[in-house]
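Continuing from the previous page of notes. For each protein in this section, the sequence appears first, followed by its structure tokens. Read the first protein now.
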Amino acid sequence: MSESPSPADSESKKSSRAGRNLPAAIAVGLSLIAMIIAALFIVKTAFAFVVMIALTIAVFELANAMRAANITLPAIPVAVGGVAAMLVTYFISANHALVALALTVIAVFLYRLRGGADGFVKDVTAGIFSLGYLFVMGSVVMMMLSVDDGHWRVLTFIGVTVASDVGGYAAGVFLGKHPLAPNISPKKSWEGLGGSITASILVGLLFTIYGLGADWWVGLILGFFAAIAGTLGDLSESLIKRDLGIKDMGNLLPGHGGIMDRLDSLIVVAPVAFIIMYLLI
């Protein structure tokens, strides 16, 4: 006589198939979406500060993760300088933000000087890498947000990225059979990529037509390239975590991991979405 599985066993199977705590992931995801929409459409500037806070948390998550590889990321000057560059981008101009970013690179050098020669190159490199990986991309989001219809542009960019993640996740779980990049992320599949592209295009069509008043083909182009860029961002972060020997960047968001684990696709999609909307809308 076989024993019926316990609730814990069922939960374990559900989590192992999905790769995460699905109920917690859905609850956290919906809460984040509600917060983003409220910030964008009630006080647009509030969303700018939400992004700055998220990226500041992310750089400290990245610094903590890099300690596993004996890398000391100068998180304080990167966070201060990166936020300053985003503020300048949003309130003044992107041209002036270049100066803030350049000064941040100098600040990273100065901050790390006190640590001596041992590990100087890898620590400074990690600082400049995180500045570009997080805050240069964040400054692109500020450029999108600062125009008159910026709230719709940012919501469209986030919408196609989230759709890509959800579509890829669902298609991968239920249909995935052919690995996309087994040496990087074993759970990624070609079927998942197809789901990402399909879902991202559908949301791109919806948002560009009804939110931005653009032609339908703009949504098709945006959705397709957002899905490709989002997958690249996800794979890139998988390689970072594999190189550092960690599973998640943090544990701040139940069912998702850390802030960095939610930003991996968004930060790569941001410049792609910006240039498509800038040129075509």
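Done with the first. The second protein uses the same format. Note its length before scrolling.
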Amino acid sequence: LLTVSVPQGVYTSATINIFAASFTFLDILANGVANTDLVGLQEVAVPSTISLPQPITITGSSMALNLDLLLPQSGSYPSRTSASSYAVTPTFALSPVSVSQAPDSARDGKLIGLNGILTQASSLGFTANLPDSSLPSRIGNQPVSFLVDSSTVYQGIGSASALTPGLLVNFDAAIQPDGSLLATRVASLDIGAQNVMIGQLMLTDTDVQNGTPRLLLNAAENLGTYLSTSPPDAGAYYIAGATSFQTAPGVTGVQSLPFPASFSEVGTFPGQMLAVTFGAPVTMGTTSPPARTVTLMPQTVDGTVTAITSQGGFTVYTLALDESDNIVGLGGPSSVTAYVGPDALLLNSAAPAVGGLLRCTGLIFNDKGTLRMDCTQVDEGVPF
């Protein structure tokens, strides 16, 4: 979320300066330990390309642009036995966004599932530090301001008066015609938490000091009194008697699914997207802090459609995951069954077909070893 000043005119090219680029290879070692290899880290300017599908006309007092990372073209690592074979070639596409008065996705001005820590708040809005999801241990947070109005929905928070500095929030926002951002939904995953780490579960083991299950997360976002200032690349948290499990407040209708959509410690699996909150800072590395809450968060998977059925008003897609997916790489199932209800956001232009590619976003539940997704958004599939 960046604001820039660009002179009015017609532009046919664009460039971007990148100070660091890298990717990781995640797998399970022979002894069952999850391993991440940082590959191709370049902390200097790297060759980059921005594709403009068509000339961009900059006009008016404000407008929105969408910068897409084209992942398949941006890096390759064909062989783990030959580290020199990697390639890091960040490639992007830049295009205008036609902002809707009632946006429902990033394509028309809706920003879904943002996470931040409040630094200022009033009855008119708030400023939140948003984590930079790339290289979390190297790049700090960025402050962004949001408005609230009578249409803003609050979850786990009474009203705007309960928004106070230090509060960790999960929220949605809509771009306004003047370029400002209106928070359409503001939620607290844990009203008393001081820290939250969001990322994919790498493994579950046993905490040596407490003898209770422990969750090890590969950090995607870090926020809080400790994590904002010294964000680690991973974190371990043990399950205490007071730890509560819940689903993301931004996803509704979970109870109407045609399968038992319950989430608890026994329902976690490697590759699952979670948010773990904890309280006071601890000395990381010497002991694992107890988790206050564990929240099942939305995640996106790409797969090949192997079956299409229907059940209880839901269209059901069985997706075969590519071996590069973290769920598969961490030893999990090779398929996800996605349940698409009437309220799901359908952004795919072609009807899904067996043998085709599909991208689904939502909450993934572990139903006795079968992964089932409450799918909230469907997009075109991306080639592996």
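What the second structure shows: Helices lie at 71-74, 326-329. The chain has two helices and 25 strands. We return to this in next week's lecture.
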